[in-house]
Amino acid sequence: MADIEDDPLLGPPGFVFQSPLRGKRSRPRREANGAKMSAVLGRIGRVAKRRPEVMVKVTGSARGLRGIKEHLAYITRNGKLIGEREDGSLIEGAANVRSLAEEWWDRGGVDRPARARDTINVILSMPAGTDPQAMAEAARAFAQKTFGGNHDYLLAHHNHESDPKRPENPHAHLTVKTRGREGQRLDPRKADLQAWREAFAAELRQRGVVAEATPRRMRGVVRKGQRQAIRHMDARQATRVTRWKLTQAVKTASAGGDGTEGPWAKAAKERQRKVRRAWNTLAAAFEQAGQPKLAKEIRQFVSTMPSAQTEREHFIGLAKKLLAKQQVRDCGRSR
Questions:
Q1: DSSP state string for 269-326
Q2: How far apart are CA 211 and CA 135, in angstroms?
Q3: Which of 301, 271, 278, 302 is nearest to 13 (CA)?
Q4: What is the gyration radius of the CA atoms in the chain, in angstroms?
Q5: Which residues are registered as beta bridge partners of 83?
Q6: What is the domain partition of the chain in residue ranges?
Q7: DSSP 120
Q8: pLDDT tens, position by position, 21-70
Q9: Which pTM was predicted?
Q10: Which of 154, 196, 296, 305 ranks highest by number of CB atoms within 10 Å?
Q11: Which pLDDT tens digit goes with each residue over 56-80?
């Protein structure tokens, strides 16, 4: 982490607030004014109190007319849900959904690279219990401010499909046409995704929903999480990547490995140690500055940070449990 510069307001501990990968446009500005300090303090308080984190995730892409049709049909439940376009027009009904797919394909076929993605598919999500109306308004404002004027898109809200016994995260599907008005192509990087998360969280807060968009590192999280909406997708169509990870985990577990021997596992634990130390340094500074309540909240936050378990260690742990169950079943059959 030596390449991450000190925060202009918080000093060395402020590195936990910085995204590991930053594009030129997301490099922090150096004005240290009262308004910015107030925003930083608000953010520290929300994170220490574990306020809900937004999810903005690229779930895939579509290529070709068939791929576009299938995805637009999926997010609109084949036209049963109303979709919102970049220009504010509404798309309803299976026939209109197909017509939109054909329109996008006709407009995007000029000078199209052979393997180009025709759409980027994004999901915006918040935990169950979030006000669905505020969620829908925030998603609409985010889409318009982020892509409006440059890229056409279709936004579909999935806020009213909850089973009372198993409430679903309110979420929205946003399918963005990659070819822009001027011929530019949308190709988001990690820095863009973090900027999108922060923009979506800001829209939610403007509508009274307490939300944050901090890097996992800031919260001491090592392993990538899977929100409910993504887990549902993965359950319906188990990805090749997931199957490969499980297969590799079974091989490692069968050989007696636990995943902690790799350099990546050691690096993850060292990163979390630095994050814990940075938070504790902030707590001490706030206590000396006469803010004992915030200092106490930070220390409680640090004490409940998850263990530094990598995704690989997690999969190997699952594989060991599966192998143990298999051994029990085999023993029962042999008697």
A1: HHHHHHHHHHHHHHHHHHHHTT-HHHHHHHHHHHHTPPP---HHHHHHHHHHHHHHHH
A2: 11
A3: 278
A4: 23
A5: 91, 156
A6: 55-206, 228-334
A7: E
A8: 444 444 444 444 556 667 777 778 787 777 888 899 999 999 989 999 99
A9: 0.67
A10: 154
A11: 999 999 998 999 999 999 999 999 9
Q: Report the alpha-carbon distance of residue 147 to residue 87 in Å, rounded.
A: 11
Cβ atoms of 225 and 164 within 8 Å: the answer is no
pLDDT per residue over 209-218, tens digit each? 988 887 766 6
Give me the sign of the Cα torsion angle 110, 113, 114, 115: negative
Phi (first) and psi of residue 297, to 5 degrees? -60, -40
The whole-angstrom separation of Cα 99 and Cα 93 is: 10
Short-list 318, 267, 302, 133, CA closest to 209: 133
Predicted confidence (pLDDT) per residue in 165-216, tens digit? 545 688 999 999 999 888 888 999 988 998 999 999 999 999 999 888 877 6
The helix/strand/coil state of 54 is coil
Residue with tokens 């995730």: 57
User: What is the end-to-end Cα distance of the chain in Å, rounded?
Assistant: 56
Q: Work out whether strand 90-91 and strand 83-85 pair parallel, antiparallel, or are unpaired.
A: antiparallel
Burial of 143 (0-12, 13-18, 19+ CB in 10 A): buried
As given in the structure block, the two tokens for residue 215 are: 């890097």
pLDDT at site 329: 66
* Residue 62 phi, psi (nearest 5): -125, 140
Q: Which residues pair with 91 in a beta bridge?
A: 83
